[in-house]
Design a protein that fits this description.
- It is a single chain.
- The longest helix is centred in the first third of the chain and has 50 residues.
- This protein has one domain: minor pseudopilin epsh fold, CATH 3.55.40.10.
- By secondary structure, it is an alpha+beta fold.
- The protein is built from 1 helix and 9 strands; from the N terminus they run αβββββββββ.
- A hairpin with a 7-residue loop joins strand 7 and strand 8.
- The strands form 2 sheets. Strands 1, 2, 3, 4 and 6 form a 5-stranded antiparallel β-sheet that branches.
Length: 169
C-alpha cells in the first residue's frame, strides 16, 4: 500500500519559497504611507513652481497658493480674487487640490500643516522670491489611515529664491 504524501524536502522547499516571497513583499506594505505623503509633496512642489512662474510672468496680478483651513488641500488663485481658484487651461477644472481626489488621488489620507505662511496664503514677488515671509515657509504632509504608522515629509520654500526642497525623514 502506497500512501501519497509530501516528502520533507518538498515541504522545506515550499517553506523557503514562501519565506522569500514574504520577505520581499513585507517592506512594501510599510512604504504606502511614505509614498502617499511624497506624492502629495510632488504635486504641491509642481503647483508652487507654477504659481511662482505665473507671478513672474504677470506681476500685476500674482498667483497665490491658498491652504485650506482643514489641512486637506490647497488651491491656486489670483491675488485679486483669492477665494476663487484659477481655471486650469488643460482641463478647464478649478485649480483646487484636495488630497485623495482628482490629481491628488494618490495622496489619500494626507494632511497639510503650514508654518511660516501668513494667513494660509503663500505669495511670490515678481522676481520669484517669497512675498513678506513670516519665517521660512514650510508645509508638512502627513499620511495616515489604515495599516502602518503615519509617515510625513516636508516641503520648505527658500524665501530668497522661491525654490522648494523636499525633506523626507
Amino acid at each position: 500500500m502506497h500512501r501519497r504524501a509530501f516528502t520533507l524536502i518538498e515541504i522545506l522547499i515550499c517553506l523557503v519559497i514562501i519565506s522569500v516571497v514574504a520577505a520581499l513583499t513585507v517592506p512594501f506594505f510599510g512604504r504606502d504611507h511614505a509614498d502617499r505623503a511624497a506624492s502629495g509633496a510632488a504635486l504641491l512642489r509642481s503647483d508652487l513652481r507654477f504659481a511662482q512662474l505665473a507671478t513672474m510672468a504677470n506681476p500685476q496680478d500674482p498667483v497665490i497658493v491658498r491652504f485650506r483651513s482643514d489641512g486637506k488641500g490647497y488651491w491656486l488663485a489670483r491675488l485679486t480674487t483669492p477665494e476663487t481658484p484659477l481655471v486650469r487651461s488643460d482641463t478647464g477644472a478649478a485649480w483646487s487640490e484636495i488630497m485623495g481626489s482628482g490629481r491628488a488621488r494618490s495622496a489619500d489620507h494626507v494632511t497639510l500643516a503650514t508654518t511660516g505662511v501668513s494667513g494660509a496664503t503663500l505669495r511670490f514677488t515678481p522676481l520669484g522670491s517669497v512675498h513678506a515671509p513670516s519665517g521660512t515657509p514650510k508645509v508638512t504632509l502627513t499620511a495616515g489611515g489604515p495599516g502602518g504608522a503615519p509617515a510625513s515629509c516636508s516641503v520648505t520654500i527658500d524665501t530668497s529664491t522661491g525654490t522648494s526642497t523636499l525633506t523626507v525623514p
